[in-house]
Amino acid sequence: MTRYKPLLLALVGGSLLWTFHADAEQLQYKVKAGDRWKLKTHLKGYGTMTWDAQGQKRPLPLEITIESTPVCKITSVDADGTFEVTTEYRVDVMKVLIGGKETPVVIPTSHPRITTKADKFGRVVEAQEPLNATSEDVLGVDFNLILSAIPNVFSEKDIRVGDTWEFRQQKNVTIKMTGKLLAIEGDVARVEYTMEIPLQHFAEALRRRLKRQTGQGDLTVRGKDLTGRMISLVNLSNGFPVRSEGVMHMDIEVEAPGQFRLHQVMQLTLQRELVP
Questions:
Q1: In which domain, by residue range, is 123 found?
Q2: Within a domain: 60
């Protein structure tokens, strides 16, 4: 039986200060201790897991559904605007289908927390890992590390609609991110993010899982960096995140010479929405 440990989505968010400087604007987080919000999160994954062993190739469709409601609370704010946010994870639905058959999973009854510290532009400066928190047992990928490192990250400079900025996230897992201000729609700012996450992170997670399951330590990992695109909406009147959605793609192949080859391809769709 495959045991699926809690998927933890650490989401740094907050209020935004939208100030006008002639024809340009500046986005930055502005929060106070005690601010609290709740995000309904849907993660849906479709893909194929293909095992090639002893000359026999067996492709299996893979489908994953996870619904959770992380609750975020600002615990402290420094004079320079740097803030600390604690996110409590509450998994509501968790379903894994491999080859069309539902795989038993355990929905956690506890609510693990992760604490993240970020500056006023959303750059993570410190992140505390929760104990015994990993999703790699099913996917070979530790998504709580990835998603905890993808807050809204803003430009340090004044920007106009159409402007872009780049950023490398170094905490937890390295991410190359490009942001673009798409539009101001009433009291909502629409921001696009494209991102790349190195294959190396997935390679290490997948090696650990397969080594536990097969005892095989001599593994070769090939594939592509994970890529994704997200659209984030921010309410300018109160600054809280209103809604975000995006798609990520992964393509990984692992081989134990003379033993087996595993090829995993998946598309992941993520949606988050502010709820009371």
A1: 16-275
A2: yes
| Residue (of 213, 197, 210, 198) closest to 254 by Cα position | 210
Question: Structural domain tally of the chain?
Answer: 1
CATH number reported for the structural domain that contains residue 204 in this entry: 2.30.230
| Amino acid, single-letter form, for residue 172 | N
Q: CA nearest 203: which of 161, 247, 253, 169?
A: 253
Per-position pLDDT tens, the chain of length 276: 343 333 222 323 333 333 333 357 778 888 899 998 888 989 899 999 888 877 788 888 999 898 888 888 999 999 998 999 888 877 888 888 988 899 887 776 666 777 888 888 888 888 775 544 444 444 444 445 444 444 578 888 888 899 999 988 655 556 788 999 999 888 888 999 998 888 776 676 667 766 776 666 677 888 888 899 999 997 776 667 789 999 989 898 888 777 788 888 989 998 989 898
Could you tell me which of 136, 39, 116 has the C-alpha nearest to residue 76? 116
Q: What is the DSSP letter of 192?
A: E
| Residue 10, in any domain of the structure | no
82 vs 84: CA distance, rounded Å: 7
Q: 115 with 12: CB under 8 angstroms?
A: no
144 inside domain: yes
